[in-house]
């Protein structure tokens, strides 16, 4: 294995672990992520740690601040609007491309994703909510023929994981999310693409609106 590939492999593993630690609150907003301490904790050099922090900055989880290093980002109203508006533009396009090509087995896989999502909700397993929600959406888009758009949406869902978890902890959001997911499955199974696309846009918009109201009311993570 080349040195470059080895560093990339280490960096990817560190990205995954740090992202999860930020999502589960181990590193709350404002926390400083020190390269030396992280390198020591992971028993690696500073190079893969630095690469991991740059990747997390690109994903919006940290900010690299001069003379301070990497700081865990707080919830951002601008980012919420940007991410969810992009999702509203791109995800219906993927849905329209994917659904006509999906098989019965594909729909069973989607239903399985939704069942796992609902089980995690019932169990209060907050750490998995965002990931399972993303898995559900990506399963619906699996047959889409736009690989670049799929890659972008996958990144957007990953970024919105942090926000989705927060939104799902608010009142009736859990029941509404489950109902909308199941209705979306039924519309897609029935080939009602226009209705499915409209529901998907409304579904994403309601999450955005919930989060904006939360932040404007002074909410914190």
TrEMBL record:
Pfam families: FCD (PF07729), GntR (PF00392). Residues 8-75 form the HTH gntR-type domain. Transmembrane segments: none annotated. Keywords: DNA-binding, Transcription, Transcription regulation. The keyword Ribonucleoprotein does not apply. InterPro entries: GntR_C, TF_FadR/GntR_C, Tscrpt_reg_HTH_GntR, WH-like_DNA-bd_sf, WH_DNA-bd_sf. PROSITE patterns: HTH_GNTR. The keyword Hydrolase does not apply. This is GntR family transcriptional regulator. It comes from Bosea rubneri. The lineage of its organism: Bacteria, Pseudomonadati, Pseudomonadota, Alphaproteobacteria, Hyphomicrobiales.
């Amino acid at each position: 294995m080349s040195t470059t590939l080895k560093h990339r492999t280490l960096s990817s593993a560190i990205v995954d672990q740090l992202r999860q630690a930020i999502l589960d609150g181990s590193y709350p907003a404002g926390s400083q992520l020190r390269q030396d301490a992280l390198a020591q904790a992971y028993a690696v050099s500073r190079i893969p740690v630095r690469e991991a922090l740059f990747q997390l900055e690109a994903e919006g989880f940290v900010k690299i601040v001069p003379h301070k290093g990497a700081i865990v980002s707080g919830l951002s109203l601008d980012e919420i609007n940007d991410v969810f508006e992009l999702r509203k533009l791109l995800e219906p396009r993927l849905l329209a491309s994917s659904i006509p090509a999906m098989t019965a087995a594909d729909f069973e896989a989607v239903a399985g994703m939704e069942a796992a999502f609902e089980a995690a909700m019932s169990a209060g397993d907050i750490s998995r909510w965002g990931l399972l929600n993303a898995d559900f959406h990506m399963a619906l888009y699996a047959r889409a023929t736009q690989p670049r758009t799929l890659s972008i949406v996958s990144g957007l869902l990953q970024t919105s994981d942090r926000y989705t978890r927060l939104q799902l902890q608010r009142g009736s959001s859990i029941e509404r999310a489950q109902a909308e997911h199941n209705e979306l499955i039924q519309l897609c199974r029935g080939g009602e693409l226009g209705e499915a696309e409209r529901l998907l846009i409304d579904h994403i918009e309601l999450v955005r609106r919930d989060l904006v109201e939360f932040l404007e009311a002074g909410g914190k993570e």
